[in-house]
Design a protein that fits this description.
CATH class of the largest domain in chain B: Mainly Beta
Number of strands of chain B: 12
Largest interface: A-B, 54 and 52 residues
Helix content of chain B: 25-40%
Number of helices of chain B: 3
Shape of chain B: globular
Radius of gyration of chain A: 15 Å
Strand content of chain B: 25-35%
Distance between the termini of chain A: 16 Å
Shape of chain A: globular
Helix content of chain A: 55-70%
CATH superfamily of the largest domain in chain B: Rod shape-determining protein MreC, domain 1
CATH architecture of chain A: Orthogonal Bundle
Number of strands of chain A: 0
Largest sheet of chain B: 6 strands, antiparallel, barrel
Order of helices and strands of chain B: HHHEEEEEEEEEEEE
Structural class of chain A: mainly alpha
CATH architecture of the largest domain in chain B: Beta Barrel
Radius of gyration of chain B: 24 Å
Structural class of chain B: alpha+beta
Strand order of the largest sheet of chain B: 1-2-5-4-3-12
Oligomer: heterodimer
Number of domains of chain B: 2
């Protein structure tokens, strides 16, 4: 990854963090706010494949963890698993399909929330399952489904357009 | 013809990142690394504060504009000037009501009979929880104002929670309802009636443990901080009131459900009690 690529990725992560910490945390439905940071590993997995999905999930998760009272590193762990999972699950699919970002966002967001609660529980934070998981899944997933396409386009613009892991490039990012 | 081998790179990357994440989580939970991550969080939060504040300043007028537009749409046949005037007056009225509510909360913070001689530091609530998995609020005072980890936070009715992250100019408060919150409490008039009041997650009532089966509790009975030696809170701060209590057939403890005395969903101003377990 070249310096301009790294700068683009950093810019996209910064934009997502800013949106999350300013707009989303105040946008509450039934006491739950959307979590757009979960879109980053999903989009990177979709655009760049499993390795890049995992790397983006780890990096963006660590950044997200800086602003949360939950265990430091937990978002990074969930992010790398989800980014890898989306990358692997979509290897054989036509990544230019219009419905793929939306479907990936639906599954990845719901999976991320559940995984987050479960891993927190397993890592000694039992209170993380004392939340209304269904409500969180519904709110987070609904918001991320709406924002999936622009998120994938932004991440596609940021990630270098080279074929990785023997897979075709997505062609669904913004053109540079 | 040899079959093309699938690259192992993604899996290797995943294994490395998972191990790295688990290592970070483990180190954060124990030992001195937790202080490092806390410091990094503090720096990030301080660095991000101007961005958050700037964007809030931009968003607030847009929100007011949108609210005004919605109202305008409902009465679009009316005279434009009259409508603007009505909107302006309504906005003024709302602002006056908000100011009055804020004043009420602030003046109530000046009269906390149960706080005694302890010093308090008033603070504005600047954000509600940044995670869906924890019940927290962010307040607009930090280490530079004298806030330290573990300090109790109160509002006009009683206990709100405890400082769990102190940055330079802001702090994070874990609310009573958070699943990780436990408060040592006393109830009733009988000496030695101790209980542990625990949070059960955002929006859920509190539960009291250690209350012996058969204890008679009336609805509305107050639980206050115990202030026992080494406790996390000073004594006599109202915590919660009983909403229901029942004895299990085989349990040695009452199942006691409580409601916090403070409305934790509508906090605007709180006070940080400058107290630590070693404070007399």
């Amino acid at each position: 990854m070249t310096a301009p690529d790294a700068a683009r990725v950093s810019l996209v992560v910064f934009v997502f963090v800013t949106v999350q910490q300013t707009l989303m945390v105040d946008l509450r439905v039934g006491g739950v706010h959307p979590d757009v940071m979960l879109l980053l590993p999903m989009a990177a997995g979709l655009v760049g494949g499993p390795a890049r999905g995992a790397t983006m999930g780890f990096g963006s998760g660590l950044v997200a963890d800086l602003f949360m009272p939950t265990p430091f590193g937990l978002s990074a762990l969930v992010g790398c698993l989800v980014g890898f999972g989306v990358g692997m699950a979509t290897v054989a699919l036509d990544r230019t399909s219009w419905w793929l970002p939306t479907l990936s966002s639906l599954v990845a967001s719901a999976g991320s929330v559940v995984l987050y609660g479960l891993l927190g529980y397993l890592l000694g934070q039992p209170q993380m399952l004392h939340v209304d998981l269904t409500r969180i899944v519904v709110v987070v997933t609904a918001a991320n489904v709406v924002l999936a396409v622009p998120a994938v386009r932004l991440v596609g613009w940021a990630l270098p357009a080279v074929s990785t892991e023997g897979m075709p490039t997505s062609g669904i990012g913004l053109s540079r | 013809m040899a079959k093309p081998r699938r690259s192992r790179r993604p899996r290797t990357t995943l294994v490395i990142l998972v191990l790295l994440s688990v290592t970070i989580i483990t180190l954060d939970a124990r030992g001195g690394f937790g202080r490092i991550t806390s410091g990094v969080k503090s720096v990030a939060s301080d660095a991000f504060a101007p961005v958050r504040s700037g964007i809030d300043d931009v968003i607030e007028p847009i929100g007011s504009f949108l609210a005004g537009s919605v109202h305008y749409g409902a009465v679009r046949q009316q005279n434009q000037k009259l409508q603007d005037e009505i909107n302006r007056l309504k906005l003024q009225d709302q602002q006056a009501a908000q100011t009055a509510a804020a004043m009420q909360q602030l003046s109530a913070l000046l009269h906390l009979p149960w706080i005694g001689n302890l010093q308090t530091l008033p603070a504005q609530v600047i954000a509600y929880g940044t995670s869906n998995f924890a019940s927290t609020i962010d307040i607009g005072v930090g280490r530079d104002d004298g806030v330290q980890l573990g300090m109790p936070v109160v509002a006009s009715g009683g206990l709100v929670g405890q400082i769990v992250q102190a940055n330079h100019h802001t702090s994070t408060v874990r609310l009573l309802t958070d699943g990780a919150s436990t408060v040592g409490a006393v109830y009733g008039t009988t000496p030695g009636s101790y209980a542990a009041v625990s949070g059960e997650g955002a929006g859920k009532p509190l539960q009291a443990g250690l209350v012996p089966s058969g204890t008679v509790l009336t609805r509305g009975e107050l639980f206050s901080t115990s202030g026992l030696n080494g406790a996390a809170y000073p004594a006599d701060i109202p915590v919660a009131r009983v909403t229901s209590s029942r004895s299990g057939l085989s349990s040695s403890q009452e199942t006691v459900v409580l409601q916090p005395v403070v409305d934790l969903n509508h906090l605007r101003y709180v006070s940080v009690v400058q107290w630590g377990p070693s404070t007399p």
